[in-house]
Amino acid sequence: MADGWLNAAAEAGGAVLLQAGGHWDARNVTRLDQLLRGLAPSNGAAVILDLTQVERLDTAGAWLLYRTRREVRARGGRADYTGLTPAHEAMLEQVEANDQPAEIEPPREPALLAMLGRVGDGTVDVMIEARQQVAFLGLLLVTLAGTLRHPGRLRLVPLVYHMEKVGFNALPIVGLISFLIGVVLAYQGATQLQRFGAEIFVVNLVGVSVLREIAILLTAIVVAGRSGSAFTAEIGSMVVNEEVDAMRTLGLDPMEVLVLPRVLALVITLPLLAFFADMMGLFGGMLMCWGTLDISPGLFLERLQGAVSLWSFWVGIIKAPFFAFLIAMVGCLEGLRVTRSAESVGQQTTRSVVTGIFLVIVVDAMFSVFFAAVGV
Amino acid sequence: MAGQAEPIIRVRGLRTQFGDQIVHQDLDLDVRQGEILGIVGGSGTGKSVLLRTIIGLNRPTAGRIEVFGQDLANVTAAERLAVEQRWGVLFQDGALFSSLTVAQNIEVPMKEHLDMPVRLRDEIAALKIAMVGLPPEAGSKYPSELSGGMRKRAGLARSLALDPDLIFLDEPTAGLDPVGAANFDQLIKRLQGNLGLTVFMVTHDLDSLNAICDRIAVLAEKRVMVIGSMADMLRHEHPWLREYFHGPRARAARLQQDEVGG
């Protein structure tokens, strides 16, 4: 690739002759920029820019020449081009005609102010979101009540479709995670309880923790990550595509068509998933007890009957529909809050998962307090 | 520069295929230096696919594509990069990076390929913003704050950032109102004249074809069926061409042109 070059020579009468040649294009401007700044006089002397030997001139090269002329003139010196071909002249005129400063970045606020602004924005955002969640909850309950009065309006095919997607298809991952957690709990419990010679209480530990808390909580978190996000992304891309608007104009209620089948599907399947997770967690614990503590499956089941009451099981399962409702509601709401850009689908999906998991854990804590108060 | 014998793009025997579906077969095309070539064709004839194949976003099944005299299938990564710096591409909706301002978008190629001082980069970005007819304050705006027409102008400015010899435009006037489309046509024509660009343009817009294209290539039957000036198109007897260039919309476009011309 050919280079551009620049020579300086003194002319009669104190003027500086700058001879440019070669390729004055974008690939060479960085070097030429430095050369020009070094050679152009800063004392107001006259400058002649000789372009006779320039073979190639593009806007970037022309800009350098034009800027030099402008700067010399601004200092009160004379500056002119010589040796222009018509094409070079046209290029220099083009650049001159478009000499206009532009803003590169939006003006920045002072850091402290910007931080305060972000805190304020965030706070207002949280409140707006909380209000929208409450409003959406109301809307959802009204829609649900309407469907209960007219059960024929319930859309069965989407309901079954979503049950398969959020429930049946989640079985492998939920099962595997619960099984592994059962194994880990039993193993950790065993190493601690062995020191007191109380290995047999591992059964109580695994039974109570899996049934009451671990299985349902893990299932809810997996489902929030798996299905809550999917709800947001599906509904969100429909919003971007104007499908949701199209539905409204066709007299279809997005609450009934999109939201209700998803919410009901999750409310129905999450308790079933939680039951499956209970079983897999206990199974994992049982295998671990057998392997490391020599507690046979028969003995494990016998101890388990003594260790957990039926209520331990119900405490876990009762929470499932509530968690499901929250996850599905947040997933659908965040999907409908997508604005018409692809970026916002991503943002709302992240938000949906974070909010979903947060609400699940808050409600789980409230349930713990409640169950403690009623004594189960 | 115009009228030189060596074509700037030379496509020979191109075949593109997606699964069983053959989009192009034995397609030949020459693009001459310094011309504005419009590519037209019915929906699904592979106009955009052709553009994407030439710029290397699709791999051809068979055939040879030469740009600036280099066979793009057999070049090293460095040679390919050198070719890529000599062309600019305007995608349909501008394809601006949404996390950067307009000016920063224009600076991306300069930052990536040329070791330019920040000040010079900002100056050249400002120059490009003015050249595509955007107001100075547009530089600090994000793409989401711009109208469709402004996004296209900004996309054009980015494609011109490295002063390319060749630009590819994918439906540059689609989605613009007639006034905006006409302005954009004139902008392309003016820049092409001033900068000596070669323009490869996929379009549906009969007004653009009429107003600014030097030659028109018609894609049909999986190849370039006809290539020539607007007058050649009007003389041609192929039924699709007759329908396209003599239909009611074409008549309106021509009428308008005659009025302006006469």
What does this structure look like?
The complex is a heterodimer of chains A (376) and B (262). Helices cover 72% and strands 8% of the residues of chain A. Chain A contains 12 helices and 4 strands. Chain A has helices at 29-39, 59-74, 86-97, 111-149, 156-166, 171-193, 202-240, 243-249, 254-293, 297-307, 310-336, 342-374; strands at residues 4-10, 16-24, 47-57, 79-82. Chain A is elongated, with a radius of gyration of 36 Å. Chain A starts with a strand and ends with a helix. Chain B is of the alpha/beta class and 262 residues long. Chain B has 2 domains: 1-86 and 166-262, Rossmann fold (3-Layer(aba) Sandwich), CATH 3.40.50; 93-163, no CATH class. Chain B has helices at 47-54, 77-84, 102-113, 118-131, 148-159, 178-195, 206-212, 230-235, 239-246, 248-261; strands at 9-18, 21-31, 36-41, 62-67, 70-71, 87-90, 166-170, 198-202, 215-220, 223-228. In chain B, the strands form 2 sheets. A 6-stranded mixed β-sheet of chain B has the order 6-7-8-3-9-10. In chain B, helix 4 packs across helix 5 (148-159) and helix 7 (206-212) packs parallel to helix 10. The longest helix of chain B has 18 residues, at 178-195. The model of chain B has no long low-confidence stretch (mean pLDDT 85). Classes of the chains: A alpha/beta (376), B alpha/beta (262). The A-B interface holds A 1, 25-27, 29-30, 33, 58-60, 63, 67, 87, 90-91, 94-95, 98-107, 341, 343 and B 82, 85, 98, 101, 103-104, 107, 110, 114-117, 120, 122-131, 134, 136-141, 144, 160, 162-163, 194-196.
Give the helices and strands, then pairings.
The complex is a heterodimer of chains A (376) and B (262).
Chain A lengths: L3 E7 L5 E9 L4 H11 L7 E11 L1 H16 L4 E4 L3 H12 L13 H39 L6 H11 L4 H23 L8 H39 L2 H7 L4 H40 L3 H11 L2 H27 L5 H33 L2
Parallel strand pairs in A: 2-3, 3-4
Antiparallel strand pairs in A: 1-2
Chain B lengths: L8 E10 L2 E11 L4 E6 L5 H8 L7 E6 L2 E2 L5 H8 L2 E4 L11 H12 L4 H14 L16 H12 L6 E5 L7 H18 L2 E5 L3 H7 L2 E6 L2 E6 L1 H6 L3 H8 L1 H14 L1
Parallel strand pairs in B: 3-8, 3-9, 6-7, 7-8
Antiparallel strand pairs in B: 1-2, 1-4, 4-5, 9-10
Helix pairs in contact in B: 3-4, 3-5, 4-5, 6-7, 7-10
